[in-house]
Design brief:
The complex is a heterodimer. Chain A is of the alpha/beta class. Chain A has 11 helices and 9 strands. The longest helix of chain A has 19 residues. The chains are: A alpha/beta, B alpha+beta.
């Protein structure tokens, strides 16, 4: 794992690289698919947009912040679903969530009907969209179910690039992916830093302490702790290469999220009488979890 | 949120539809497509209320140069007039590319 990271790092020329973080969701999807193979489903001109935001006085987006792109990756049929983190924090509402869940369902049906279809999920999301709470929650569980179904047949690769990060119910979707690619700018966590500070107090977690936040939720530390697989630099070509690298591995015998007993044992061994830090978590979970 | 609608006389051809921008802080999305009528229609949804005159000024200037009989839909999340003007020009550029 470490070697792959260094290999990818070494290929980046910062003078000529194309930042992946600066790309919008549609451009990110394009950057991952084979050249000229991008074909968007339910694009902005189809006007399938949130029926709930405008009645709550919030400006909607024509694609509801979810880009579904069919195409090929190394000539292999693929669907890339990219969440636009800049629109409503990448939150999952009815339309956005349904687009993602249905894209996965169709990929599975195509796979079962003889066209194996890879899935790549670009997860920049704070989780459920509070203005569409119940529908968002229902769809996030549907997304989880669809990932579980599809990953039995083909790899489902998640990418958390930043800067929004991936939180809430969608962090569970990230955890269910066959493989998870992150950058140093990425953050991955169940509760976001602001939520922890608000609920448990600033002594528990200071959300404005960036060093602290990234030492817990940051991509680099998530890889060290074995909760993400590959750390890549902020470069569109490096991300595209990493996606191909992870897809080529195929479906593992056991997914990380299915190693329930393994993680239950590790948790049981944790001494909760002392404060754990990132290095201790990496020491405890990192070496074991990749086995 | 405020909605607005503007119309301008226009007969120019719009070669193809174009979509630019995102509904993110300080930004907007523009959907530009051929209109079936011989005029341009602009529908705006903006998160910032009360700037009707600014919108009119930006669009007046835009349509003093652009002749396309376009149906334009704007979803705005607090973009400055300069950003709006640039996004409109970008949409035209993509439409005519």
């Amino acid at each position: 794992m470490k070697n792959s990271t260094e290999l990818l790092e070494a290929t980046v020329d910062y003078r000529t690289r194309e930042s992946f973080l600066e790309l919008h969701a549609r451009e990110r999807a394009k950057a991952l698919l084979d050249a000229d193979s991008f074909r968007e489903l339910l694009g902005p001109f189809d006007r399938v947009t949130s029926p709930w935001l405008a009645i709550q006085d919030i400006v909607p987006e024509a694609d509801d912040g979810c880009i579904v792109a069919k195409g090929t990756i190394d000539g292999h049929a693929a669907v890339v679903v990219a969440i636009e983190g800049k629109f409503q924090g990448g939150s999952i509402g009815e339309v956005c969530g349904m687009k993602l869940a249905t894209a996965l369902e169709l990929a599975r049906k195509d796979t079962e009907n003889g066209t194996p279809t890879y899935a790549v999920l670009l997860l920049e999301t704070g989780g459920v969209r509070l203005q569409e709470a119940n529908l968002g929650l229902a769809l996030i569980s549907e997304i989880h179910a669809q990932i579980m179904e599809l990953r039995q047949h083909v790899p489902v690769v998640g990418v958390v690039a930043g800067m929004v990060g991936c939180f809430g119910g969608m962090s569970l979707a990230a955890a269910l992916c066959t493989s998870l690619i992150v950058t140093r700018q990425a953050r991955l966590g169940m509760n976001g830093p602001e939520v922890i500070e608000q609920e448990a107090g600033i002594e528990e977690f200071n959300a404005s302490d960036r060093a602290l936040v990234w030492s817990v939720d940051g991509g680099e530390y998530r890889v060290k702790a074995g909760f993400a697989d590959l750390l890549v630099p902020d470069d569109a070509r490096a991300v595209a290469k990493a996606v191909r690298h992870e897809l080529a591995k195929g479906v593992p015998a056991v997914h990380r999220s299915s190693k329930v007993e393994h993680y239950r044992n590790l948790l049981a061994q944790m001494d909760t009488s002392r404060q754990w830090d990132a290095a201790m978590v990496a020491e405890k979970f990192g070496k074991e979890s990749t086995k | 949120m405020q909605t607005m609608k503007f119309e301008y006389p226009a007969t120019g051809r719009v070669p193809r539809r174009a979509h630019v921008g995102v509904v993110g802080s300080g930004d907007l999305e523009v959907l530009l497509e051929p209109s079936t009528e011989s005029k341009a229609i602009v529908k705006i949804r903006t998160s910032v209320d009360g700037f009707d005159e600014y919108w009119k000024a930006v669009l007046d200037r835009f349509f003093s140069k652009y002749q396309g009989a376009a149906l334009i839909e704007i979803n705005d999340f607090g973009a400055t007039p300069g950003t709006v003007a640039l996004r409109l020009e970008q949409a035209v550029e993509e439409s005519e590319a």
